[in-house]
Write a structure and sequence with these properties.
The protein has one domain. Helices cover 77% and strands 0% of the residues. The protein contains 9 helices and no strands. The longest helix has 29 residues. 37% of the residues are buried.
């Protein structure tokens, strides 16, 4: 009887589980900071902090599994997402001489409340999906809820902000959420696929950069409100 009761008690979380889940929560909390931040430069810097947490997740997972390809992924993510992408976007902002985000479609409090609602939905949706972590060599399953919530709140950032930079940062943040989810579900993907995902991000940066420059030259602003008038 006593042995059956002990078997029913779940094992306490390990230090690896605690560290990785904390980093996944940091990734989610940074998105909320982006949602309420009015300065474009601050949004870009917050994206760099979020990307640093994602790189740290890949590094911790690489250390726990002694996986060389994950070390490469963590290094590439650190260089591209933490250094290259923020530097390029900040340089474009310097050329445009704009630092204030475009108008909000809703108030800050409303956006945060909607973000909390979709985050709860993301966690509940993932908890309803039964994933067996014993066969997976990735992050703990609870981190998948944080990754899903990150994608949903990032999508809100794209919808609720009316400027090109905020929408680009929201898109980049969604990619970070997908990266965390991939570390939970399929951490040992072939390295060539992981590198392909990172280069897709670079293509998106180039596309958004061209859009920012072209739109600023035409409208002398980064606001997308003028683009809304093109709807038929």
């Amino acid at each position: 009887m006593q042995s059956s009761l002990l078997a029913a008690v779940p094992a306490p979380p390990t230090s690896f589980d605690g560290a990785t889940e904390a980093l996944a929560v940091v990734v989610l909390l940074v998105v909320f900071a982006m949602l309420r931040e009015a300065l474009l430069r601050s949004q870009v810097r917050l994206y760099a902090v979020q990307s640093l947490a994602v790189s740290a997740l890949a590094g911790v997972l690489a250390a726990s599994q002694h996986a060389g390809e994950l070390y490469v992924l963590a290094g590439l993510s650190l260089v591209l997402k933490v250094v290259v992408v923020p530097t390029v976007v900040l340089r474009l902002l310097t050329e445009a001489e704009v630092d204030l985000a475009g108008s909000h479609r809703f108030g800050v409090a409303t956006m945060v409340l909607v973000g909390v609602a979709v985050s709860v939905f993301g966690f509940l949706a993932i908890s309803a999906v039964h994933i067996n972590p014993s066969g997976a060599a990735g992050l703990p399953v609870p981190a998948l809820g944080a990754a899903t919530a990150t994608v949903l709140v990032s999508f809100l950032l794209v919808m609720f902000r009316a400027d090109v930079v905020s929408q680009a940062v929201g898109f980049f943040s969604m990619e970070n959420g997908v990266s965390v989810a991939s570390l939970v579900i399929a951490a040992r993907l072939p390295l060539i696929l992981e590198i392909g995902f990172l280069f897709d991000l670079l293509v998106a940066v180039v596309a958004f950069g061209v859009l920012m420059r072209a739109h600023h030259r035409r409208a002398s602003s980064l606001s997308t409100e003028t683009l809304d008038q093109l709807r038929g």
